[in-house]
């Protein structure tokens, strides 16, 4: 994270909040997938240390932070939300930002409810994606699907019909074209106080202990990530300000991202999953601390060996809108993409994919597709061909 010369201590505090959120997610996800007793104990200790990191900068005491972290039961990813931009009849533009939760309804239901209240149409698609992590907000990592509405109501009448922005989502959060969201910012080493450095040393020791004992490749990948985070810090002379790190108890609707990679002939790359034997486009869970577009690019590389770039967003796919409810990962951000080098050979990840094919739209109809891909793959072809 580049340190703002005008506010180095505040920037470092926000960076520490970000780091705590990433480590919180690593612990929650490891516990969700399950581990042996010793590894489970280490993950619980990691969660305690992640809470201790946040307690260095947040205004709440450690016990309250830890209670929020200990309430995690599902996968923890960037949380989806909406930014609604409403152009009113009097020339005013209203902006409302809210997360999607398991109790607040689906994405489709939210858009339909707001459109009905404003007596206007449901937007066809988001015009941008905003990201609190890229913006440097210290709240739990949230990405916002930006939708634009036009209403014949004036601002006062429209505002009375809308829920307010969630307080921790206030601030300057620029919206990006969906194809430009695979960003990997060069943040640089995180400046930390000696106390924080000691906490990171304890976390690094946990990761080292895990790597000496666990054999599961996914658990090892997790601990390598944790160790790398601890190394990417440097001691500095700091005085952290007390900041508000947002709604730590916000309900996480976990999110995945996939990449519909097309070749020059308009064929789509699909892989045969090793777990079910069915065909799917490359994809997987997004990680706290990475934009969802980058998650799609990363998953494509990990599963196929291809370096790809995004060309657009096909569908913000809320499975709950399609009667494909999935408690594990309800939201999928489905992107279109292309290989940076058309001649780059495939290199399949043995644990993820047993085969790969480039298919036409017609060939897709005859494949045994993984759940949800029977809807997403036709949408990918339609988006690639400019039909929607």
TrEMBL record:
Pfam families: NUDIX. InterPro entries: NUDIX_hydrolase-like_dom_sf (IPR015797), NUDIX_hydrolase_CS (IPR020084), NUDIX_hydrolase_dom (IPR000086). This is Nudix hydrolase domain-containing protein. Its cofactor is Mg(2+). Residues 252-383 form the Nudix hydrolase domain. The keyword Hydrolase applies. Keywords: Hydrolase. Coiled coil: none annotated.
